[in-house]
């Protein structure tokens, strides 16, 4: 198996604090510029300027050795070109409608094969986690990608605190079900609530992130506030948004997209240019926010994270377990 060169930073590459602060200043300056210039662009996209996200800043977070060294996709694309079917199937629907979602207070139910089941207040969960910024590429199954400066914490740390039993082989995640707040749930595009799952070793991999923000701010609702998963070596649909339940199971959990079209979306959903989707190729991807006529980007096996995750699938036929 050919594993492409890792995109990850080594310890020597970690940006010194001053440079990191400068780069954050650049990000926030370009965001201010965006805020100033955005009204016209938003009107053109059919969004009222009042839908512009005004999130609270997250004050305390570190950097990550897992960040890729690529320029993040502009904020306005990250927050206005979304997949969040609970708010509709159009890319602009989540930004238009996700203000209906109330994200505070928020609790997460932990159940199944675990020593510490319960209903946890998200605020209490966050008190015990170390937040860091991780710049990851999210590669969507629809053959486009974005690079996002996510803020979050390691799922592995949370799992260790919850103490799964020896029977826990998988972790299942569930999104909120509330058609009043999530009007897309009134139509039958998917079987609600949205569910996703990981094998325990995938969930425990240090790359797997529980994200609570992006671009230095609390997560915009359309991106999955207040808590979502980011699994950077898998197609974007595994990165479930607005999580209200985490269940530890012995059996492989059902997942929404697999249930809706088994032949198109597998449980593993690892980014793999050699395995086409039945209706389109996965060899290349459109880079969201790139200039017009920018060539498509070659998709990398495991989205470039082969060094960190290829061992999880040793001996598995990835054509079969797609
Ligand atoms: N989570 C929920 N609950 N509902 C969804 O429709 N869409 C998925 C994933 N998580 C989705 C979801 C898909 S297909 C993708 S590509 C990513 O979210 C998109 O994340 P983004 O909008 O932050 O780019």
Distance between the termini: 15 Å
If classified by CATH, what would the architecture be? Alpha-Beta Complex
CATH class: Alpha Beta
What's the overall average pLDDT, rounded?
88
How many H/I helical runs? Answer: 8
CATH topology: Sulfite Oxidase, Chain A, domain 2
- General form: globular
Low-confidence stretches: 1-22, 29-45
* Strand element count: 13
Which ligands does the model contain, each kind named once?
Answer: ligand MTE
The arrangement of helices and strands along the chain is HEHHEEHEEHEEHEEEEHEEH
Whole-number count of domains: 1
Give a structural overview.
Residues 1-22 and 29-45 have low confidence and may be disordered. This protein has a single domain, classed as Alpha-Beta Complex (Sulfite Oxidase, Chain A, domain 2), CATH 3.90.420. The longest helix has 28 residues, at 17-44. The strands form two sheets. Strands 1, 4, 5, 8, 9, 10, 12 and 13 form an eight-stranded mixed sheet that branches. The protein has a five-stranded mixed sheet with strand order 3-2-11-6-7. It is built from eight helices and 13 strands. It has helices spanning 17-44, 75-78, 93-97, 122-127, 155-162, 200-203, 256-260, 306-309; strands spanning 62-63, 107-112, 118-121, 132-140, 144-154, 170-175, 195-199, 209-214, 217-218, 228-230, 243-249, 284-287, 297-298. With 322 residues, it is of the alpha+beta class. The chain is globular and about 50 Å long.
